[in-house]
From TrEMBL:
This is AraC family transcriptional regulator. It comes from the Bacteria. Keywords: DNA-binding, Transcription, Transcription regulation. Pfam families: Cupin_2, HTH_18. SUPFAM superfamilies: Homeodomain-like, RmlC-like cupins. PROSITE patterns: HTH_ARAC_FAMILY_1, HTH_ARAC_FAMILY_2. Signal peptide: none annotated. It comes from Euzebyella marina. The lineage of its organism: Bacteria, Pseudomonadati, Bacteroidota, Flavobacteriia, Flavobacteriales.
Length: 288
């Protein structure tokens, strides 16, 4: 975990790095770095954590995360990956805030770029025609070098800065309060929940695992996750239910109980609170 926090994905001699990832798992640790990151999933699915946002991810998703915004992509194929038989693929671009020099962002010409960087501190996900355009542009950048690559990166950022086809991910009130030890502890909690969300999870279990009292753990988690532990578990369960409803075409009742909910009424209530729609409306939006 220390290496994940201290490493820089960009050599000091480079303004940016664009590369393909073909690994058993995307960077598996809850971490953050000073560089900005554009990431496209080429193969894989699972649960994505960005700031206090918890959502499923799938092939084709494109996100832009700002400086020091904690993030984690956790694959659904954890057991297969442990046996080295499942692989995730992605394309990633890292760049420094001052990759065009320390004074450029203060110029009049850079006003949209400054605004974009502020938005990226909450994380951005793109959709529609913008996502289609970005997929092509990101793959083109992978094979470029030198000034040609920098000019193309500017085209990507210009495209992002002008679009309205995006969703901000972390809440408006989110701030990164994590330290190195916190990052390791929060990852430990996330990992435990992802393995056990289908069962009843008692706060006392997590408190013991993190060497805290239940009250201290609840307070600690809310400070660093910007939400209660109960809400966090509900979001994980609803995210899993969404995948069951759409990808596996399960009925509402099956999705409810296979996602860890004990009653259908609570499932429907939590589903609407988190997705802003009922499970049936959600299925109809996907033509099911």
């Amino acid at each position: 975990m220390k290496a994940a926090l201290q490493k820089s994905p960009i050599p000091t001699s480079r303004a940016y790095v664009a590369k393909l990832l073909n690994e058993p798992v995307f960077d598996p640790h809850w971490h953050f770095h000073s560089e900005y990151q554009i990431f496209m999933v080429l193969k894989g699915n699972g649960t994505r954590f960005i700031g206090d946002s918890v959502k499923p991810f799938k092939t084709g998703d494109i996100t832009f995360t700002g400086s020091n915004l904690p993030h984690l992509w956790r694959s659904d194929q954890e057991q297969e990956q442990a046996k080295n038989i499942a692989w995730s693929q992605g394309a990633v671009i890292y760049f420094k805030e001052d990759f065009l020099g320390t004074n450029f962002l203060q110029t009049e010409e850079a006003i949209r770029l400054r605004q974009l960087f502020r938005k990226s501190l909450r994380g951005m996900e793109f959709h529609g025609e913008t996502a289609l355009k970005l997929r092509e542009m990101i793959m083109q950048l992978i094979s470029m070098e030198g000034l040609e690559g920098i000019l193309h990166l500017l085209k990507i950022l210009n495209c992002i800065s002008q679009t309205q086809e995006f969703e901000l991910l972390a809440s408006a009130g989110y701030t990164n309060t994590l330290r190195e030890a916190d990052t390791e502890r929060m990852y430990q909690v996330y990992s435990y929940v992802m393995k056990n969300f289908r069962n009843k999870i008692a706060i006392a279990q997590l408190a013991e695992m993190t060497n805290m009292t239940p009250t201290s753990f609840s307070r600690y988690f809310k400070v660093h996750a910007n939400k209660s532990f109960t809400q966090f578990v509900s979001e994980i369960r609803i995210g899993h239910a969404c995948k069951l409803l759409i990808e596996q075409k399960k009925n509402v009742s099956t999705a409810c109980y296979e996602s860890g909910f004990q009653t259908l009424s609570n499932f429907n209530k939590q589903f609407k609170a988190i997705t802003k729609r009922t499970p049936m409306v959600y299925k109809k939006e996907y033509g099911l």
